[in-house]
């Protein structure tokens, strides 16, 4: 399955989804599966609205992560409107003790990326060690990060 998501960095931080599943807390970049007839860019926009409540514009592909036989495409995003945390995706209604676990929109400060379990790990590690996250994301716009994760 092809997945698409966003790398959305603002003055508030990096947009993420806090997941609590089986008693484990971790964070993912907003995104999800590409539906039939949808481009990865369209899926990234839709998933960001469903999960974060934000309307975004995506432009450059900044990362492609190959994970468990699937490719995940991440795009640089800019907020156009909406209300952060007002996502309406069905997964947001899941309690922490459900099989799917819980989902919550959060902002992560770049300095926290080094200590939190943020996925994809390769993107989080690169941002955590960058002296300027915005500059790194802009650099990825011309040469996307391409990695294989286990």
Q: What would the principal axes of the Cα set say about the shape?
A: globular
Question: Which residues sit in consecutive blocks of at least 5 with pLDDT less than 50?
Answer: none
Beta content: 35-45%
CATH architectural grouping: Alpha-Beta Complex
Describe the structure in your own words.
The structure is a single chain. It is built from 3 helices and 10 strands. The model has no long low-confidence stretch (mean pLDDT 95). The protein has a single domain (3-149), classed as Nucleoside Triphosphate Pyrophosphohydrolase (Alpha-Beta Complex). The chain has helices spanning 40-52, 121-129, 133-142, and strands at 3-7, 9-10, 13-21, 24-28, 31-33, 54-67, 70-82, 102-108, 118-119, 145-149. The radius of gyration is 14 Å and the shape is globular. The longest helix is centred in the first third of the chain and has 13 residues, at 40-52. 21% of the residues lie in helices and 43% in strands. The strands form 2 sheets. Strands 5-1-7-6-10 form a 5-stranded mixed β-sheet, with helices on both faces. A hairpin with a 2-residue loop joins strand 2 (9-10) and strand 3 (13-21). It is an alpha/beta fold.
């Amino acid at each position: 399955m092809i997945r698409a998501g966003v790398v959305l960095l603002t003055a508030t931080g990096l947009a993420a989804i806090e997941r609590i599943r089986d008693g484990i807390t971790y964070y993912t970049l907003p995104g999800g599966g590409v539906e039939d007839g949808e481009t990865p860019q369209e899926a990234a926009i839709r998933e960001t609205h469903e999960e974060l409540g934000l309307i975004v514009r995506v432009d450059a592909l900044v990362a492609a992560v190959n994970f468990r036989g699937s490719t995940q495409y991440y795009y640089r995003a800019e907020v156009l409107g909406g209300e952060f945390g007002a996502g309406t995706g069905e997964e947001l209604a899941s309690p922490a003790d459900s099989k799917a676990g819980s989902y919550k929109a959060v902002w992560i400060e770049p300095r926290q990326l080094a200590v939190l379990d943020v996925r994809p790990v390769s993107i989080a590690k690169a941002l955590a060690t960058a002296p300027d996250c915005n500059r790194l994301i802009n650099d990825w716009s011309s040469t996307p990060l391409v990695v294989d994760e286990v």
